[in-house]
Amino acid sequence: MTGPITAGVDGTDESRAALAWAAREAVRRDLALRVVHAWRFQSAAAAEVAGRDDQERWVRESVQEAVAAVAERHPGLTITTDVLEGDAVETLVAALAESQMLVLGSRGHGAVVGFLLGSVGQQVIAEATRPVVLVRAGDQPSTEVAGHEIVVGQQGAPEDSAPALRFAFETAAARGATVRAVRAWTLPPVFAYSPASLKLLDDAGGLEPYERQALAAALEPWRKRFPDVPVVEHVEIGSAGQVLLSVSGRAQLMVVGRRAHRTAVGARIGSVAHGMLHHADCPVAVVPHA
């Protein structure tokens, strides 16, 4: 699809870092940048100080100040700005539907792991039909250099991880970077074995060779589509979250798939994506499964 890269901004240091990341990526991919801010009139205490018109003016001035700084750094970049009154989640999800990806700020590390991402970010990721990139405050372009890889998690059958692999290869191609494709595996319980699965393992020569063959099969179409992108195939025993975090220090971007789960207390985004968003030091792209 065609469309801009969209950055959601809210005046925080995290959103300014996200805006800067989105601008650099838009330049690399030769795309336009759309900047979106969703706001609501604060009718209680804030209204005692300023009415609707003043609040909206302050919001617009704050957004324009952030956009002006990005425009100065990237004079050839096409930038549009939308300050929209309404619910933040609904506004951002609607903007993403017309975009290549959405870039948001993430609050980073903290003591209460379950509350780091924030309700807006978590809901947007759970509802998103296209990639969402989370960027921490303080993120610097110095990480986007040779030697720093695009790390992507691969699991299941080839089609299960196709959207995440596609995003990783497209990003690597735009940056001249290497893709490190990671497939983590664990020993299955005895009751999981069946005659058919035992035959597959026997044909492959064992568990680890089977996992290596599965990763190679998932990567094959993307290697053909992006022949100039170097690829490192990384197969390691362990939980997916632990293995991905072990290589995150060499990553300029971590790409993980997402299969959202609905529960009585709201949407959950999966343990691997959740763990990367809270513990990886680099930006994290969460790509919904097809």
From TrEMBL:
The UspA domain is annotated at 1-136, 150-288
Q: Which domain of life is it from?
A: Bacteria
Q: Which family does it belong to?
A: Belongs to the universal stress protein A family.
The protein depicted here goes by the name Universal stress protein
Organism from which the protein derives = Streptomyces aurantiogriseus
